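Internal tracking record. Fields below are filled automatically when a chain is submitted to the structure queue. Please do not edit lines marked as system-generated. If the sequence contains nonstandard residues, flag them in the REMARKS field before resubmitting.
Queue: standard
Priority: normal
Entity type: single polypeptide chain
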Amino acid sequence: MSRYALSLALCLCATSRLRAEVLAGPVDLRAGRDRKPVAHLENGVRVDAAVARGKWVTIGTFVVVDAGAMSGCCTLKAGQTLVGADGQRFGVTTDDIATEGPFTDQTTHKQMLYVSGEVPAKAVPIATSVEYAMAKILNDRTKKGTGPIARADLETHLKAFPYEPWFDEKEMTSMYIPDLPGPSGGRFFVFFYNDRLVAVMFYRRMPLTAAGPTKPTRLGMWMYVDKVSPEVKKQMEGYYFPIIAKAN
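SYSTEM-GENERATED OUTPUT FOLLOWS
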């Protein structure tokens, strides 16, 4: 992959695994300027949410569809059960929903559809987000005074949230979570050096008890979460910062 193909990577790497919050339902999904109810969503389902604007927040999720569920190329019919690729039931459509049309999931080869709309902000508890989950890991380490976090120790976290591979170079590897709306950008990034977590990058709030050294970037705040040598910092920033600077 070209190291400067960032905008393409951010758009194409997202799959039907996109989900980063747990919905506090049941709640109606709404669409349009008048926020007309278009679906009824169940409690406890995984969705991904944008940053709340006032009392409302945009959420989205991927669902499995067949030809009979669609009207024309891009309208999901009312009365359709919404089910994710992993079989999770999200709810049911109560009205027609305009979408961008189905696509074939690269992993499951199922026909998928991205469904999005608005719900009340209170229906998306921020404490279920990836930022809060990572903050808890880092805060627990600070409290216990333990050492570096190995990648193997993060496997549960990495599997619980929709991380995708990002750019790798020799000892350096990274993963990210696509953002909403779209998905079109990066929401949260983790960076490893020799399979040890050394930095994260984010733009939403993280409730940290102690923050490491930070640097602002076009994609959010870069923060070191472990002590690294000046040589490693130079290597990490020399590789990743030019990629970040090219981000759209």
